[in-house]
Design goal:
80% of the residues lie in helices and 0% in strands. The protein has eight helices and no strands. The longest helix has 36 residues, at 2-37. InterPro entries: DctQ, TRAP_DctQ.
Length: 177
């Protein structure tokens, strides 16, 4: 099961690379066309924005899995093991609540987004903003799995260290500031 999970996240990382590369190529190509030939490709403007939205929301799930989101590690690092686990449990419960609200908000907004189409591509805006389903569900599932392992004692010391930021090198800590 872990191999399948890792394979899925590897697919997401490749998808992120493709979205970023596609976005960069479309924007660069449009800049060259506009300044060099006084023309542009309208679809590339629109699609690069959508790629950016998808890149951001898919990347949020990948970053959450890797404990790469902003945290208050200095406070949690002062606590003992039980305090750290309590913070992890509380954090995951808050994330489940916020992600569930995000998912529900996407669901409520879906009829409105479905009725609107993009001006150039004609793409239903539900495809653009529907990425909220993936992000909300992804973060809820990751948090539920972590919460289950926390409550059953299956959390490892490495995971606790990742949560508190203790597994980072000096270079990685410098990148975060």
């Amino acid at each position: 099961m872990q191999k399948l999970n890792d394979l899925f996240y590897k697919f997401l990382e490749i998808l992120l690379i493709l979205l970023l590369a596609g976005m960069a190529l479309m924007v660069f190509g449009n800049v060259v066309l506009r300044y060099g030939f006084n023309q542009g490709i309208n679809v590339s403007d629109e699609m690069s924005r959508y790629f950016f939205v998808w890149l951001t929301f898919i990347g949020a799930v990948v970053a959450f899995r890797e404990h790469s989101h902003l945290g208050v590690e200095s406070l949690v690092a002062m606590l003992g093991r039980k305090g750290r686990i309590a913070c992890m449990i509380l954090t995951n419960m808050v994330i489940i609540l916020c992600s569930a609200i995000f998912f529900w908000g996407t669901w409520v907004q879906l009829p409105i987004n479905s009725s609107m189409v993009a001006p150039v591509t004609g793409l239903s805006m539900a495809w653009v903003y529907g990425i909220g389903f993936f992000t909300g569900a992804g973060c809820v599932l990751i948090s539920l799995e972590r919460l289950f392992r926390l409550l059953t004692g299956g959390v490892t010391e490495d995971e606790i260290a990742a949560f508190t930021g203790e597994n980072l090198s000096i270079e990685q800590m410098a990148e975060r500031t």
